[in-house]
Write a structure and sequence with these properties.
The protein is mainly alpha-helical and about 170 residues long. Helices cover about 40% and strands about 5% of the residues.
Length: about 170
């Protein structure tokens, strides 16, 4: 037995090339293919196609058997107008500024990091007039949490270093 052809749209198996050609030209197959691809069309394409067609008189009576391959429109005037309004709203949304891409955000973050290296957030002056510079940059978004942060994430103050005894443990 030779190769068999399976049509995903119609859920049918066929064996000979003549049957396959006949099937592909058939109205049922074309209707199912059209309905399948209809779901991937955007509203502007549907509006353009349906606006050019005349209304289907059989569909309005409930007698049209062609479905997606009908030469005439199955949309009412109200549906086409609603679709037109939907397309206008979507076009306006496309014109509005878009969100920055990940690459843009990353480059902006990197440039902010390089400009903040000389920030005053990393410099502390104690009561003796001694300047202390931390080797890191404090994340200012942590200030929103106030005292709810764990001690390791809180901003250092000069008072945190007064009256502390630092012990050095030597192993030997």
């Amino acid at each position: 037995m030779g190769k068999r052809y399976y049509c995903d749209y119609c859920d049918k198996n066929m064996a000979t090339p003549a049957i396959i050609r006949t099937h592909l030209k058939g109205a049922v197959h074309q209707k199912l293919v059209s309905e399948h691809y209809q779901q991937y069309k955007d509203a502007a394409t549907i509006l353009r196609e349906e606006s050019a067609k005349k209304p289907c008189m059989r569909f309005s009576k409930g007698e049209c058997n062609f479905g997606g391959i009908c030469r005439f429109s199955h949309y009412t005037k109200e549906q086409i107008e609603a679709l037109r309004e939907y397309v206008v709203v979507n076009e306006k949304r496309k014109i509005e500024p878009k969100q920055p891409s990940f690459t843009d955000l990353y480059q902006r973050l990197q440039s902010e990091k390089t400009t903040k290296t000389n920030s005053t957030d990393t410099t502390v002056y104690d009561s003796n007039g001694v300047t202390h510079t931390f080797p890191w940059i404090y994340n200012e978004s942590f200030d929103l949490y106030g005292e709810n942060l764990p001690p390791s994430l809180r901003r250092f103050k000069v008072e945190d270093f007064t009256d502390n005894i630092f012990l050095m443990k030597c192993e030997g």
